[in-house]
Design a protein that fits this description.
The protein is of the alpha/beta class. It folds into two domains: 2-151, Nucleotidyltransferase, domain 5 (2-Layer Sandwich), CATH 3.30.420.40; 196-384, ATPase, nucleotide binding domain (Nucleotidyltransferase, domain 5). The protein has helices at 60-72, 107-115, 124-137, 157-160, 166-172, 181-194, 248-257, 261-270, 273-278, 283-291, 295-319, 329-334, 336-343, 355-358, 384-399, and strands at 2-8, 12-19, 24-32, 36-44, 51-57, 87-92, 103-104, 143-147, 203-209, 213-219, 222-226, 324-328, 366-367, 376-379. The mean pLDDT is 93.
Length: 401
């Protein structure tokens, strides 16, 4: 079975094609600046050089047509015809309370996804555009939606209800939903397998640290709390997002700067976080800046890592203990400085790093904790696309399609 995994962003289309017999990745790609004449096409096959081109991609359907041409091309393709694609799995950001698991895409599911748009106005519409494009281009190929929020539907009410008038939840379903669910699910499962432990017996904290960051408390394999909220703005300091702030600051800043609510929202989502603190949302720039003695870079790094450490301590308390701490995603997998700083004051929880292991770079899962440490600290490469492919395969087989 060959499954094409699609992630449509606000101006991008990310894709991977899998042969699910052995879960082999056949090819991958990223189309950037969709909707522009100078869009960028990136295409990669394992063991081959990346192919990069600049060309017009006016719409999602044009972009998806292009990627289908690439993967079936006689010169660089990996399949001979689109009929070899058995199913398409889509990353969908927000499933609200409607979806607690992955779904076969039907008219009813699409209608319910449209109802979720007010909760994710920047993310869900592109996801739906991708689904619509495939319905036109490959009308007989089944499609599945895998929701970022689904894994967190196991959170208890005390974790997801905000302390605002309860009628706001009843009327508008204002609550914590959490995101990066496919990543938190995948790395917690992989951690248990690596340690040869039953996940039902483990208390795990997973740290997804990239341009977007979130932490999840995984108790017995289920999400019981997570740092992102109704939107991805809440929680940790991120590349361009502020994370937790005093809500009253928004009104204060709007009045002082004479800006609109949309401008304030844009500032908190796109101009804050590391970018707002030191001028760059790339953690590698922070590393270089700290080495050079730049005070703003050092401050930004310390603010970011302090927030992560604080959440780890809080979630360990909520779970009544901790067995495994997992770092994943771009920063989590590649920044030994971040991991080292975060773990610096967590010895009281049983966290002790092997600092020689911590500086080793690898694309494989690894244990970076001291041999005698009570809590295992793991670096687990995430693979959200593989989770989507697996869920899609499971649904297609269960439906007998």
């Amino acid at each position: 079975m060959k499954i094409l995994v699609i992630n449509c962003g606000s101006s991008s289309i990310k894709f991977k094609l899998y042969d699910m017999k052995k879960e082999d990745e056949l090819c991958s790609g990223l189309l950037e600046k969709v909707g522009h004449n100078d869009a960028i096409s990136n295409y990669k096959r394992p063991g081959k050089d990346k192919i990069k081109k600049t060309l017009p991609i006016k719409s999602y359907i044009d972009g998806i047509s292009l990627l289908l041409e690439m993967i079936t091309s006689p010169d660089v393709g990996v399949i001979s015809d689109v009929t070899e694609i058995n199913a398409v799995g889509h990353r969908v950001v927000h499933g609200a309370e409607t979806f607690s698991g992955s779904q076969l895409i039907t008219e009813e599911v699409i209608n319910k996804m449209n109802e979720c748009i007010p909760l994710a106005p920047l993310h869900n519409p592109p996801n739906l555009h991708g689904i619509s494009a495939f319905r036109k281009l490959l009308p007989t190929v089944p499609q599945c939606g895998v929701f970022d929020t689904a894994f967190h539907q196991t959170m208890p009410p005390e974790a997801f209800i905000y302390a605002i008038p309860y009628e706001m939840y009843e009327k508008y379903r204002i609550r914590r939903y959490g995101f990066h669910g496919t990543s938190h699910y995948f790395v917690s499962q992989e951690a248990a397998k690596f340690l040869k432990r039953d996940i039902e017996d483990l208390k795990i904290i997973t740290c997804h640290l990239g341009n977007g960051c979130s932490i999840c408390a995984v108790d017995g394999g289920e999400s019981i709390d997570t740092s992102m909220g109704m939107t991805p703005l809440e929680g940790l300091v991120m590349g361009t997002r502020s994370g937790d702030i005093d809500p009253a600051l928004i009104k204060f800043i709007m009045e002082k700067e004479n800006i609109s609510i949309d401008q304030a929202d844009n500032m908190l989502n796109k101009k804050s976080g590391l970018l707002g603190l030191c001028g760059s949302n790339d953690s590698r720039d922070l590393d270089d800046g700290m080495i050079a003695g730049n005070e703003k870079d050092t401050l930004a790094f310390n603010i970011m890592t302090r927030r992560i450490t604080k959440y780890i301590g809080a979630y360990a308390a909520i779970m009544g203990g901790l067995d495994v701490l997992v770092f994943t995603a771009g920063i989590g997998e590649n920044s030994e400085h971040t991991r080292g700083k975060v773990c610096e004051n967590l010895e009281f929880l049983g966290i002790e790093l092997d600092y020689e292991m911590n500086i080793i770079r690898s694309s494989k899962i690894r244990d970076i904790s001291d041999e005698d440490a009570r809590v295992r600290v793991l670096v687990v490469p995430t693979n959200e696309e593989l989770v989507i492919a697996r869920d899609t395969k499971k649904i297609i087989e269960a439906k007998g399609i």
